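> tool_call: predict_assembly(chains=three)
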Amino acid sequence: MMKLHCDNIEIATGIGPDIVNITPQLGAIVRQAGVLNGSLQATVIGSTGSLTTIEFEPGVVEDLKKAISRLASPDAVYEHEKAWHDGNGHSHVQAALLGPSIVVPIRSGSLALGTWQQVVTINHDNRPRRRRIEITIIGHDL
Amino acid sequence: MMKLHCDNIEIATGIGPDIVNITPQLGAIVRQAGVLNGSLQATVIGSTGSLTTIEFEPGVVEDLKKAISRLASPDAVYEHEKAWHDGNGHSHVQAALLGPSIVVPIRSGSLALGTWQQVVTINHDNRPRRRRIEITIIGHDL
Amino acid sequence: MMKLHCDNIEIATGIGPDIVNITPQLGAIVRQAGVLNGSLQATVIGSTGSLTTIEFEPGVVEDLKKAISRLASPDAVYEHEKAWHDGNGHSHVQAALLGPSIVVPIRSGSLALGTWQQVVTINHDNRPRRRRIEITIIGHDL
């Protein structure tokens, strides 16, 4: 039987770019959903967050933060700033370039990821944010 | 009951990078689909277009255009140009880096987005284009 | 009737950035799935691979490789390198920025793509890799 399961998680994140591993939380939702094979779709709510996968180890996390800051530096001049004065013009640009959504396959009841591959959410905002991530799982039930 | 609904929209876009808010059109399709909870998957057809989310206000739009042009400048030298002479080598590179597809959750019959978050399509081509975006909605019906 | 079909492909890729057209393989799986309208979700397994669409011609392939190397140069200094000494710090950063997943619509029994648009997997690693791509198809059957 096909089954659809909707859920969400809320993740505390620090000043951007902050990169948080959400694989354990996603894995727990997959188990709860009771899906054998299918896919998990995740989208971060808000225009200064993004989702991707990385090897979640301190070196890669640091390297990715630097690369993100090169894409849109907090020190550059932003039109958004001229209108809103909230100091996060770079956050909006970074998040748009990385994108808010991701699809992760579910196989044999678990997320199918590489040995060193984890799903992360990135807060690009210039202040700590509580990030909500909406999750839609579709698949055959166990 | 689970339901699947396929549709598409066509959007007029200007010379790239041009960023167009398609949230109203997507919202109308969600209402028409009659889905309570599930997800909307959207993909732009063509190799010089992309999809993402932003806060759609003039400042961010301008900032994102500049960042996209830094990723692949129209003034750089492109191998694509040497073979095809259509002046859009940068368009292909920009679109590939941003990606053609996005997933947006549907909750309580509406797109789940942040207060300031809109779905946009970006035309990266060096001429105005009519962009077709294919939409697949899966969810439980109302 | 709605139908869900899971499958995977394995693709030999060269030293990164290497860009391989996987559209024929995806098309074959769509035909096998027997789905009329719906979508194909694909995710590359591993933290140094990515998926996107391009016009797969030698010029664009070359231009995209250059742009990817600008995002994170193999010649830069990486924290990942200091800990692991495997020379692929840039690979992790590039893959995270491009993203591991994509959604392609299925219409009238075939992938809906632009005339010049193909789905590609990119190996960002600094050695040849066999890449597994997991595919989930959901749609109405033929």
